[in-house]
Amino acid sequence: MTNYERHRLTRNLPLSFFPGVAEIKPAAKGIPTDVSIAPLINTSEDSVIANQDESQARPRTIMALASREMSAGRVIVIGDGDFSTNSFFGALGNGQLFLNSVSELLDQNKLVDVVPRNYELGTMRLSNIQLKSVFVITIVVIPFSLAMIGLLVWRGRR
Question: Which carries the bigger pLDDT value, residue 33 or residue 3?
């Protein structure tokens, strides 16, 4: 389970799925003083990196927003590149998270929280009588009528 930090980008966002995610950590040199980093998504308290003891479980940052104070430059760093591919775009909140991230980077604040439309296939519910009527008409009546018309046309040409 992931934990979202309070930010405009993650507001009203359903849970997301991150296949093969990696932790995001500052570089050994450190972060420049004019750069501010805001964690956006953290893992749960029970997260463990592969091949580690469960005693080393702790929350890990997997998505962060970095921005410079004196410029409009911003970067969103995500520890997984697959979450927004076609195969995972519709999974949970991945598509919405990706679209919110793009809107945040473009400074289109009005577009954040715009949920893409989900089209559902219409369903038809028929009672047993209606179902039998459709079956009889399409399997019996229509083929029989076409056969009779063909027979009449054939006799008329003879």
Answer: 33
Residue 65, beta-bridge partner list: 38, 76
The residue type of 67 is S
The CA distance from 43 to 31, in Å, is: 22
Higher-pLDDT residue of 99 and 141 is 141
Q: Select from 122, 23, 31 the least CA-distant residue to 78.
A: 23
Q: 134: which 2 tokens?
A: 């459709």
CA–CA separation, 50 and 79 (whole Å): 15
Tell me the whole-structure pTM to 2 decimals.
0.54
Q: What distances in angstroms separate CA 127 from CA 29, 33, 70, 106, 130, one per listed residue?
A: 71, 70, 68, 52, 5
Q: Quote the Cα angle for 119-135-121, to 5°.
A: 5
> In what order do the strands lie in the sheet containing 2-4?
2-4, 35-43, 61-68, 74-78
The domain ranges of the chain are 2-105, 120-158
pLDDT of 23: 78
Q: Which residue has the tokens 């027979």?
A: 151
For residue range 48-100, list pLDDT tens digits in order.
666 666 677 777 777 888 888 777 778 888 887 776 676 667 677 777 777 87
Tokens matching residue 108: 């289109």
Grouping H, G, I as helix, E, B as strand and the rest as coil, residue 64 is: strand
